[in-house]
Specification:
The chain is an all-beta fold and 137 residues long. It has no helices and nine strands. It has one domain: Ctag/Cox11 (Ctag/Cox11 (Pfam 04442), Sandwich).
Length: 137
């Protein structure tokens, strides 16, 4: 298998937030394999220019996740959009920020390595979900 044998999707495809306030989005992951598997998530924020204003406070992407066969797990991410985004002229017409995750399998010898990536996902075919955040109000 190229990717992680999980069903991984946002609980809500779209949520509305207030700039500067902490918000939470939830993803659901279910291991569809006959053995426990471990996955690692990388993230991507679009438009790319909005990425520097999107701040994750807590995220399942900070650590590897292991799921038993058939196990389903709620995977929350807490975040906020920096209020300075309203002062960015290149983003003056921005109404939506899209956060997506790519899940990768973690081999046994890779477990417990630090997960620190601020780089966006590479856009491979393993991209499995999108959750949009509509900016406003």
């Amino acid at each position: 298998t190229v990717g992680v044998p999980w069903q991984f999707e946002p609980v809500d495809r779209s949520i509305s937030i207030k700039i500067g306030e902490t918000a939470q989005a939830h993803y659901s992951a279910t291991n569809k394999f006959v053995r426990a598997t471990t996955g690692r998530a990388t993230f991507n924020v679009q438009p790319e220019l909005a990425g520097s204003y999107f701040n994750k406070v807590e995220c399942f992407c900070f650590t590897d996740t292991t799921l038993k066969p058939g196990e389903t797990l709620d995977m929350p991410v807490m975040f906020y959009v920096d209020p300075d985004i309203v002062n960015a002229p290149e983003l003056k017409d921005l109404k939506t920020i899209t956060l997506s995750y790519t899940m990768f399998p973690v081999e046994k010898n890779e477990k417990n390595k630090p997960v620190a990536s601020s780089a966006p996902a590479d856009g491979t075919s393993n991209k499995v979900s999108h959750t949009e955040r509509s900016l406003g109000g």
